[in-house]
Amino acid sequence: MDYIKQLKNIQKGKVDPVYFVHGTQAFIIEEVIHEILSSTLSKEEQEMNVQRFRLADTPLQFIIEEAETLPFFSSKKIVIVQDFYLATSQKAESAIEHQIESLEPYLKQPLSETTLIIVAPYEKLDERKKVTKQLKTHATVVRAAELSEQETIAWIREQADLLGIDVPDPVKKRLVELAGTNLLQLRSELTKCQLYTGVGGEVTMEAVEQLVAKTLEQSVFDLIDRAMKGKTAAAVTLYKEMVRRKEEPLMILAMLTRQLRIYLHVMELKQRSYSEKQMAGILKLHPYVVKLAGKQVSGYEEKRLKASIMAAADTDYAIKTGKQEKEFAVELFIIKLGTLSISQGA
């Protein structure tokens, strides 16, 4: 969990001259930038000595010139480069010509008064590119990537301490199940829990169930679980709640189909003795999603999953050809899932 280690260093005043922050977790990116700003400059100094640039709007060589310019009435300045796509395989976002070669000399000898923060909010970097190698060699690298389940639990512990609340381990796990691994969402839910319990309070399982809004993915997970266990009425009730929350029936159907396919793929890979990590790589899923799917499929049969996927395809066809109204059609599909669970399980 290198980003937390970097945060602790920054909070102790150990701010490096160049940071390369890459990955899709927006919360990590913003937290790193916020801590560098707070540790380096006062509020008044930030007004004059923080420069933000988008690479699509500004030539890189101009940004480097700015980084080489001394701060204004301050001992430090911050230069932030957003959307650094030059380290990826993405096509150029604008017609601006960048002199990439201007970056290397600065990385080797950065101005001591400047902290340069280069942000690449992308899932993958192009490791073959010279600029990527230079950044990884000379800059302090912070990965703003999806955390594993264990890292997410550890992160929740850190955030709970900052908020002054006690979150027992079983409650942490349930929080992740309900809200997912998106750190922005988790931070929001933890703040909600703090408002409910007060500083110094303990977050109970009951409080989490009451307060935390389920993600669409978690609602779909629960819906399938109810339906496949033959709890048809409960599954239909959950579906109607989702519709009342303005979830689109076709989106719900698509998510149900996707989840059923994940279950089938995980079941097939488990039969071939693949590890959870290997399955996550093959299916391009977060390891935590694979772990949950692995637990679920132990209670399902392959023929039941295949029949359910076929029924989902039939429902999609009926909606798109105008044979059935979408909200009613998806409800019928959920009822059929319950019927399949009984007939196929017999």
TrEMBL record:
Domain of life, per lineage: Bacteria
InterPro entries with a match to the protein in the record: DNA_pol3_clamp-load_cplx_C, DNA_pol3_delta-like_C, DNA_pol3_delta_N, DNA_polIII_delta, P-loop_NTPase
Ranges of residues in domain DNA polymerase III delta N-terminal: 19-144
Annotated catalysed reactions: DNA(n) + a 2'-deoxyribonucleoside 5'-triphosphate = DNA(n+1) + diphosphate
MF GO annotations: DNA-directed DNA polymerase activity
Domain DNA polymerase III delta subunit-like C-terminal, residue spans: 217-337
A Pfam family annotated for this UniProt entry: DNA_pol3_delta
The entry's keywords: DNA replication, DNA-directed DNA polymerase, Nucleotidyltransferase, Transferase
Enzyme Commission number(s) from the entry: 2.7.7.7
PANTHER family to which the protein is assigned, alphabetical: DNA POLYMERASE III SUBUNIT DELTA (PTHR34388)
Membership in a protein family: Belongs to the DNA polymerase HolA subunit family.
Protein name, as recorded: DNA polymerase III subunit delta
Protein source organism: Alkalicoccobacillus murimartini
